[in-house]
Amino acid sequence: MKPYEVVLADDHVIFRQGIKDIIQDLEGFQVVGEAGDGLELLELLKDVHPDLVILDISMPNLRGLEAAEEIKKHYPQMKVLLLTMHKKKSFVQLGLQAGADGFLLKDDADSELIKALETIKHGQVYLSPLLTGIIRDLTVAEPEVEKLTKRERQILKLMAEGKTPQEIAEFLYISIPTVRTHRARILKKLGLRTQAHLIKYAVDRGLTSVD
Questions:
Q1: How far apart are CA 36 and CA 8, in angstroms?
Q2: CATH for 144-204?
């Protein structure tokens, strides 16, 4: 029987190796590729088509959430398990919007990885135990970030990371006036007044890797 093929994407090599060791010891599972960031992952998937991609939410170049969206757009049958160190509603909400098939807290990886793999393999959504309450809460109240479009969330993250309008324009292949227009719309939607308020908003809600 063909093994259930998995690709790993995490910029922490030691952690990635630990996950790989666990999977390689499981009967019926095989790691067929690894990537250190989101862009490298998308390039890899042009040649390798696994059943499941396990990827960290916070990675260089292209975040895990954006990578997950691209995966589901181009390979809708491919499963995605998001790894995270955060228990924030905003991460889970955005992950659901991206089409993730599971959320695994890194702190639970040693004890829950096998269960996560088996759950997703059998067509179900996996959640680390500490995240189940968050999912229940999301059915009651969605975070404010839901008001933002995908492009607006990208620009908000880049601003919070200290990127200038010119750098954002070059990174996203759009014009500087377009960046400023998006910024004005973000401020209006979130009821904020300045870019400083936007940055604090993004950091407080874990919408960027900035600590």
A1: 9
A2: 1.10.10.10
Contact 67, 81 (CB under 8 A): no
Residue 79: both structure tokens together: 């499963």
Tens of pLDDT, residue by residue over 65-107, are: 889 989 998 998 999 999 988 777 667 777 777 888 888 988 8
Identify the H or E element spanning 154.
Answer: helix 150-160
What are 206's two structure tokens?
């874990």
Residues of each domain in the chain carrying CATH 3.40.50.2300: 4-138
The highest-level CATH class for domain 4-138 is alpha beta
Contacting residues for 27 by C-beta, under 8 A, at least 6 apart:
none
Burial 165-197 (b: 16+ CB within 10 A, else e): beebbeebeeeeeebeebbebbbeebeeeeeee
The alpha helices in 6-108, defined as continuous H runs, are 13-24, 38-44, 64-74, 89-98
pTM for the predicted model, two decimal places: 0.65
Number of C-alpha atoms within 13 angstroms, CB side, residue 187?
13
- E strand or H helix at 51, and its extent? none
